[in-house]
Amino acid sequence: MKKNRILTTALIAAVLTFTTVFSVSANGQQESGPKQTTLSFITWRGDDSQAYDMIIEAFEEANPDIKVNVEYFSGGTTYDGIVTTRGMGGELDMYAAQPGGQLAAYVQSNFALDISDQPFIDRVMPGAKAAATYDGITYGVSQSTSTMCVFYNKEIFREYNLEVPSTWDEFIAICETLKSNGVTPLVAGLSQPYIAQNHYKMMAGHWMPEESPSHWQAINTGDMTLADEPFASIMKDIEMLFDKGYYVRGVEGVDKHGAASLFAQGQAAMDIEGAWRTSTIADIEGAPEFGMFGLPYKGDPDRKIHIVHPNQAHLIFPQSKNIEAALKFYDHMMTKEMQAIYAEYANMVPTVIGTPVESPVTRMVTEFLESTEGVLGPNLSNTNNEVQQTLYETFTKVAVGLDTDTVIAEMQTRIDGIER
Fold first, then answer.
1. Which residues are within 8 A (CB) of 19 and not within 5 positions of it... i.e. 6 or more apart?
2. What is the pLDDT of residues 369-389, one digit of tens each?
3. What is the pTM of this model?
4. DSSP E strands, 139-185
5. What's the pLDDT tens digit per position in 304-316?
6. Residue 130: CA atoms inside 13 Å, Cβ hemisphere, count?
7. What is the widest separation between alpha-carbon atoms in the chain?
């Protein structure tokens, strides 16, 4: 009898377990119960992994039927190649895209879902929506915004009675003063191509903000060459910074993290980077009191500008089988609470209106953006990947002191030979 009770109990437990997985439909067929959806998306923003982890944890807690897998692109093959292969193969639901040429290329390839009617669109600043809108259709929103800048050591500036420069000549005079007193003026992560691009963007923004959105597409179409202005003159001034010995020794081998460390250690008075590196510098032990300014260039000295730098927008594959879940996750990311987390850990200015900002370093960036005029820097993205990579190489070669005229001639010849 006892044996039969044990068997009955085991059978009941088995049935209960089974019914949590299957139910019976009206026509007698078995149906599976609630199952978990897995969202897959990729971004190159590995620096923001802590923020993403917290945002995903909160989402999964509120939506236990949805799991989010995020992958941080770190090289090895082209990002576009991964997006295309996995997306078309049904292995990718969402992905990060850079506003500009990259986003346009994805839209033209039918890789981006129209989300114009989503309610979270109305929560964001107009610029965040515009950053991922193409031909009047919104495919995403910029997750946050920031700017390129020059970090400066306030302690060193005070010691030599230096003021934040308003013109290019004043900036060069500061470099000369520092160098003559045995202080290295500059550091930058010039082993990484995007740092040299930042120099150009900040400088060109004083010349041609109105033309900037389509600036580099003219290189692709042949309507502009690398020898044309303002590119050639600006690149010669970028080369001059290296030639005059303003950078730390061996800067061509320094990456973004090394540059932040050297600046924080007082081995250079200024670091040419982006406002997204503010918290990294602030968190380094022994970091000095520091501030930020926009790199001045030739133009109106009374015009204080910053280059609007929208962060990545997340796009959804129209071919995704998990569009509903992807939209739910997107909506979650664009709440004030999640934007506050991202702003705190990524040191970016949030784009959802009314998001509270508590971090002192994030407030510093916000105040800088609010106190200067925002302009679009030249959009360096290009719909032709070979042209894009050639441009990157051009910036890097010139920034580390190679002769500008020689590099321009070599790179233009390469561009002319690219099939398109």
1. none
2. 888 888 867 766 666 778 888
3. 0.74
4. 144-146, 148-153
5. 888 878 888 999 9
6. 8
7. 99
